[in-house]
Design brief:
This protein is an all-alpha fold and 269 residues long. The chain is built from 13 helices and no strands.
Length: 269
């Protein structure tokens, strides 16, 4: 039997099924990514930019598995997301920009330096204390603005939440939720009185921004709250779809009042 080439031996080692330690499984996963980059025509063509939207999709699929409380899917989606992270690091190595060792070193440095209340002498008793220390440390690292580092690619709901959390970390915030509720009433009135399309859009944006602010005082992430509300609506609407389908009537044959009755039934079910 002819001797295997190095790449053939690597493939054989990857495919081989045997009990492995955590470090061995990690090396196995990295080896898979390296082989795919060399051997697969699709993987050879990828760039950080071409993979960006897929990384985002995998993140959403991971969140979906969390929402569904599906442990098997959650395990798989964690693997899919890890694959994309591995690929991005591999591309970084190819550019000579950074390696896995650099990534983990930077991560460990950040975790230690930004948790002086754990690894140093700084005191932090509450979550708010931690956030204040966190933002102060970021500014000490050379950032010109407290808002540097808020990704523009975020959903605007989450981006607004992140901005508000950051400024709250240095004390720029409402003293309590009552002020935010008063502001909500004010923004609704301004939206009602908006005369032009431009004013309506601006006031609606202000209203959304204030709602995001209020979510912080409720202790909930607005993205999570809206996702759950959308999922709830979709579940109820599917119930209505089933009733319409079994009725033998079309949607257009239902009056608004009849559809509202179906909606109320869906809520109880």
């Amino acid at each position: 039997m002819p001797e295997k080439t190095p790449i053939e031996q690597l493939k054989a080692d990857i495919v081989a099924h045997r009990e492995r330690t955590l470090s061995e499984q990690f090396v196995r996963a990295l080896s898979l990514v390296h082989v795919l980059r060399k051997e697969c025509p699709w993987d050879r063509q990828q760039t950080p930019e071409s993979l960006a939207h897929l990384l985002l999709e995998e993140s959403y699929e991971l969140i979906h598995a969390i929402d569904q409380q599906d442990e098997m899917e959650l395990k798989k989606e964690c693997g899919d997301l890890f694959l994309h992270l591995c690929f991005q690091v591999l591309l970084g190595e190819e550019r000579g920009a950074f390696s896995f060792a650099d990534v983990f070193e930077a991560l460990c440095y950040k975790l230690i330096s930004r948790h002086p209340h754990v690894f140093g002498d700084t005191f932090a008793e509450t979550e708010q204390d931690v956030l204040k220390n966190w933002e102060t440390l970021k500014l000490n690292e050379g950032r010109k603005s407290l808002l540097d580092g808020v990704p523009r690619a975020m959903s605007e709901l989450l981006r607004a939440y992140r901005v508000q959390k950051k400024v709250s970390g240095v004390g720029f915030d409402w003293p309590n939720s009552t002020g935010v509720l008063d502001k909500l009433v004010e923004e609704i009135e301004e939206l009602k009185n908006a005369a032009s399309k431009k004013e309506q859009e601006e006031e609606f944006g202000d209203l959304l921004f204030t709602l995001v602010n209020y979510s912080r005082f409720l202790g909930t992430n607005p993205e999570d709250a809206l996702r759950k509300a959308t999922n709830k609506f979709m579940g109820r609407f599917r119930t209505i779809e089933e009733k319409v389908e079994t009725s033998g009537r079309t949607w257009h044959e239902y009056t608004a009042e009849e559809l509202n009755v179906l909606w109320q039934l869906a809520k109880t079910e």
